[in-house]
UniProtKB/TrEMBL annotation:
Keywords: FAD, Flavoprotein, Monooxygenase, Oxidoreductase. Residues 213-248 form the FAD-binding domain. One of its GO terms (molecular function) is monooxygenase activity. This is FAD-binding domain-containing protein. It holds the Pfam family FAD_binding_3. SUPFAM superfamilies: FAD/NAD(P)-binding domain. Gene3D superfamilies: FAD/NAD(P)-binding domain (3.50.50.60). It comes from the Eukaryota. InterPro entries: FAD-bd, FAD/NAD-bd_sf. The keyword Disulfide bond does not apply. The keyword Zinc does not apply. It comes from Hyaloscypha variabilis (strain UAMH 11265 / GT02V1 / F).
Amino acid sequence: MGGQRPEIARNDLTALFQSSIPSEQIKWNHKLLSVSRTPGVSSGRFKLSFLVGEGEETEEVADILIGADGAWSKTRLLLTNTKPHFSTVSCITLTIPHVSSHPALAAMIGQGSFYASGEKKAVIAQRESLDSARIYAMLSSFDETYLTTSGLEQAAKDPQEIKKMLLGSEGLFSSWGEGIKDLLTAGCDAGTEFEVTAKPLYMLPVGFQWEHVDGVTIIGDAAHLMTPFAGEGVNCGMLDALELSRCLVDGFANGVEVVDGKLRAFEQNMWQRMTGVAQETWDNLEVIFAEDAPDGFVKVMESHGPRPEEY
Ligand SMILES: Cc1cc2nc3c(=O)[nH]c(=O)nc-3n(C[C@H](O)[C@H](O)[C@H](O)COP(=O)(O)OP(=O)(O)OC[C@H]3O[C@@H](n4cnc5c(N)ncnc54)[C@H](O)[C@@H]3O)c2cc1C
């Protein structure tokens, strides 16, 4: 794709955080079970219940609560009844651990992402850290239970079974190009080493907002879960974190009573910024799985700049 879009692998990002946050401020192995408001309590407006490891439960209180707890956010339940809905696309994820040992596949993927789509299906490949590549086999269907009813969910537990369902004589991708089949083959063959997953993709409504609740907000997928078809989820989550941190630093510098106003302003700004991204993501999903695919998506890509071979 054109332009210089910075990418960072999840492990590198985690290492970066750990190198700058005092270790005692990070509580590993704490699963948030529920969050509730504690009216009338002098300190701590929110009560958080955690499961620690496999065993005990513990509680914490907080004046300001920031939920960065992903698609199925528990924090979001304080703000809205809206839940993510099925996007119409289901995704089988494969991994090629050492992609440079497959030079033809490495060249096909390039340094960024590779997309192929048609027949309401898509194969997307993406470079990851440590010389690996992720391969996504995407399938469009209005049936949220498609992966279960088709047997793909069960097959994903056995690399040879999923390979048969994707590439066997009646396989979902058996009539696709050799390069794409090689990508899927390499991913299935590594399935004994790297887990193959089969999951429906969910999303929040485009333009999703909520009534502000004092002292709490959500960021990242918790606030704007999208499908990956614009590749913007992480970028947007990181920008949320940056903008919110500025609001909080500014708010606390001017007295805790102004923090709520800053949170409101942050949310307004995030909603405005996210509506276009969420719409673009949905539009991309529609063209990738359209009857005439990949023509529409080729046009979308061309609108971003020249084809790679024209650089
Ligand atoms: C198949 C696929 C491909 C994608 N590809 C891209 C891409 O190429 N580029 C891109 O920008 N985005 C991509 N995305 C989207 C991207 O993964 C998300 O937007 C991003 O991970 C959101 O970050 P987040 O921190 O908000 O949520 P998450 O990454 O989901 O992190 C949430 C964190 O909260 C923790 N958590 C959740 N619930 C609890 C709980 N109850 N207690 C304690 N902890 C909890 C989780 O363990 C996790 O660590 C893709 C998504 C999918 C599904």
